[in-house]
Specification:
homotetramer; 207 residues; mainly alpha; Arc Repressor Mutant, subunit A; Tetracycline Repressor, domain 2; 0% strand; elongated; DNA-binding
DNA sequence: TATGAATGAGTGTTCATTCAT
DNA sequence: GATGAATGAACACTCATTCAT
């Protein structure tokens, strides 16, 4: 009802603006080759303002990695809650949601890869991502195990299967770059599923 | 018995030393965060010497990417020549060789990923890698097609299958970092194979 | 009483300080042998500050050449407006003003000579100076022509006479270096005048 | 008669080749912006060979300035011996020879100017040139004095007249650059003469 | 003697960070 | 809080000089 936003709200928006610009530029140009000045320009704020919201460049990078991670977490950690049906259907649904999620924020996947590629450079962030992965593996473990019991999935160790799936997602981001189309990602969903168990042709179901 | 090395030979060795150091450091720290001085120190030469062998830092990076690529090419481009048996056996053998190849030069895979992640930054290198991939896809196409005809492989478009395989390799490099063991890579070979066709358990064969 | 200087004014002054230091050092040591750090030190600022005001060393050199040129232009381009009397008196007056002008900013003359000596190195600056000279020649043309008509000046082509005059000024800067005194420059004014027409002894008038 | 040159002769020629290249490049690009490697290339010798003949870059520059100076000296120091007739004729002849001399080696004049412009940078060379000028002034003094006695020349101090003449030559090199033609230099000879005494039109005589 | 590889001092430029306004 | 000027550490690259061959 009030015409002017509250001061708090204004600040929150400016912070979000900067963070969004940071994710974009860090992912495009890498941490080292992204000057703070470029982030400020992209965000439409002055150079000094960036430092008002983020103490240092490293802090800005941390926030760029961790804050979007929180938004993605539900899709990876709330397996039983979000997906339903028998294990095969659950995994199908999960892949669908997760790949869509990443295909909508490909920038962000690049950021993650920068951290994964240099664990010594970003130890704290790396640990966060590692934890993220391990929780995912823990959560999906029973689903895979159940699927194996039902003869739907390969009998290999569930963590291995889970990791191969994550690897494929990461690798896809590197492999398909310029002419990105949803079609490719959709086709890839089947391939992802095949890491879990033999699937002759599930294309229509993955759309 | 041995005469002293020829000047040419000495130069070749020093160049190789520098290149090796560059691949190592570029892959560990990224292009932007690797000072030439660090490469020189790693190679045991003065930093001025690096410029004797490589005009600029960019040229050194190019060489770091392209020269090892030549060594790897045979494993990817001489499909029919190198691998034998029916399509399933050929692909098994190929995966075995290629994954071993990369697991022995994990540094190098990181370099490739830096290029793939920034096509605009490294347009010439990106094109080389893109060509490399496309030739691979062309070469493996008939093998996959034949396997499909024999009912061994999934019926999806062969290029799609090939790309998913490359994605998995790339992604594996990001996913398995610190505690690298041959075991993980070996287990992953089965997963890679499953992108081509249903394979209940081929572990013993992939060793 | 005085309010503190406005930010704009402060910036203008700092810029002028740097430019002044640059003119001094560039003229003394030449462009290539003047480190930016030396200019900064002379101006009493950190070397980073120089880059705040001048994008590159080349830009600083350009400004060092072009900005003082603007101050000198009136003495060379507003011939009819500034000088009066018959052609002989006008030229006398002009030489007096121009030589005084240069004798007060001998540093600057050295800068100009660096540009004149290397047209390919400083093409844009050279063109500016060339234009400057050509406009001067155009402006003084009618004065010389009139003086020739009155039998005061030699009958050679006015541009030739004008150029010989400019050459003398330039050469004087090279010839008289250490023990500069106004006396020499004053004596030279007569010699300059004699390039225009025969002047038995005009010393007293040139003072 | 002997087919192969003596070793001494070969060395002398190589040295001359290097020196010639040095004069050319130093005059075109300045001392600081002329790498030794460029001189070597221009001379068609290897990089290291330059150091065989000239200890350091400074020594090479010194030789580039001093050795051609010796060749030019006769034209400036053997006034009475070389030129004949009454003072006016002598000076005419002298100007003719000297300007021709410089118009044939304009490169060299640039080198001289580099030294003149930076006495503190090249103290020894500067002294040589200063001595050269002073000897010239001494030698021409009686000629001018005699011309003054005969009513041919202006009555100003002979050293002043001599210096104005040298200034004009130096300045001409700076003023006429790109479209150099002998015509301009010839026309300038009259102007040079007019610094000594009133000359209505001596063009035909200066050719 | 001729060569050019090895070296490292020197310098232009970038950019994170600080801080006065 | 917002701004952007000031600072100097860091780094790519050049090039004179040395020296082994």
């Amino acid at each position: 009802m009030s015409a002017s936003l509250s001061l708090e709200e204004k600040k929150r928006r400016k912070r979000a603006l900067i963070l969004e610009a940071a994710v974009k530029l860090f992912s495009e140009n890498g941490f080292a080759e992204t000057p703070i000045a470029a982030v400020a320009k992209e965000a439409g704020v002055s150079f000094g303002t960036v430092f008002t919201y983020f103490e240092t460049k490293d802090v800005l990078f941390q926030a760029s990695v961790l804050e979007p991670l929180e938004e993605i977490k539900p899709y990876f950690h709330e397996i039983e809650e979000r997906y339903s049906g028998n294990p095969m259907e659950m995994v199908k649904e999960m892949i669908h949601c997760q790949v869509d999620q990443f295909s909508k924020s490909m920038d962000y996947l690049r950021l993650i890869q920068q951290v994964l590629a240099r664990p010594d450079r970003y130890p704290a962030l790396f640990k966060e991502l590692d934890d993220f992965v391990n929780v995912f593996i823990d959560k999906i473990y029973p689903v895979i195990a159940e699927g194996q019991g039902m003869g739907l999935f390969y009998k290999d160790a569930p963590p291995l299967i889970a990791q191969s799936y994550l690897s494929l997602i990461n690798g896809m981001r590197l492999t398909f770059i310029d002419d990105y189309t949803n079609l490719v990602w959709n086709d890839m969903k089947i391939q992802a599923l095949r890491l879990f168990g033999p699937v002759a042709d599930a294309r229509e179901e993955m759309q």
